[in-house]
Design goal:
Number of strands: 0
Helix content: over 70%
Radius of gyration: 29 Å
Strand content: under 5%
Structural class: mainly alpha
Largest sheet: none
Oligomer: single chain
Order of helices and strands: HHHH
Shape: rod-shaped
Distance between the termini: 77 Å
C-alpha cells in the first residue's frame, strides 16, 4: 500500500501533463485551421478584385469596339479605321489580362469567343448586334462562376438556362 501512496500522485501529475499537452496541441490545431481558412478567404477576395478589374476593363473596351464597329457598318464605310483597329488591339490585351487572372478554363474560353466575335464585327463580318449577345452572356456567366465558384445564383440572375 505504501507504493501506491507514492506512485499515485506521480501518475496523476503525469496524466495532468499529458492532458495539458494534448489540449495545447489541439488548441494549436484549431488556431492553425482558422488561420488557413482566413488566408483562403483573403486570397479569394484578392482574386475576385483582380478579376473584377480585368473583366470591367475588358467590358469597357468591348463596348467601345461594338459601338465603333456597328456605327461603321451602319454608315456603309468599309475602309480601315485606325481607331477601331487600335480598339481591337486593346481588346485583345484586355483579354490577355483576363487569361492571366482567370482560375477557370471556361472563363478563358468564353472571353476568347466573345473577343473573337467582336473582332469579326470590327472586320464587318457580323451585321447584327444580336450575334454578340450569346458569347457576351456566356462570358458574364463564366466570369461569375470564376469569381464565386460553387455558388449558384438566385433565380433570375442568369440570362442563360442552366
Amino acid at each position: 500500500m505504501g507504493s501506491w501512496g507514492t506512485l499515485g500522485p506521480a501518475l496523476l501529475s503525469l496524466a495532468g501533463v499529458v492532458l495539458g499537452a494534448g489540449g495545447s496541441l489541439f488548441g494549436q490545431y484549431l488556431v492553425s485551421r482558422a488561420s488557413t481558412r482566413q488566408v483562403e478567404v483573403q486570397e479569394a477576395a484578392e482574386h475576385r478584385a483582380e478579376l473584377k478589374n480585368a473583366v470591367l476593363k475588358f467590358l469597357a473596351i468591348a463596348s467601345q469596339v461594338e459601338k465603333a464597329a456597328f456605327a461603321r457598318s451602319g454608315s456603309g464605310d468599309s475602309l480601315a479605321d485606325p481607331v477601331l483597329d487600335q480598339l481591337v488591339d486593346d481588346l485583345w490585351l484586355a483579354h490577355a489580362e483576363i487569361d492571366l487572372a482567370a482560375r477557370s478554363e471556361p472563363l478563358r474560353g468564353a472571353a476568347y469567343r466573345y473577343a473573337a466575335r467582336l473582332g469579326e464585327a470590327a472586320r464587318g463580318a457580323i451585321a447584327e448586334v444580336s450575334a454578340l449577345r450569346g458569347p457576351q452572356v456566356q462570358f458574364f456567366d463564366a466570369a461569375y462562376d470564376d469569381m464565386w465558384p460553387g455558388q449558384r445564383r438566385a433565380a433570375g440572375e442568369s440570362v442563360t438556362p442552366r
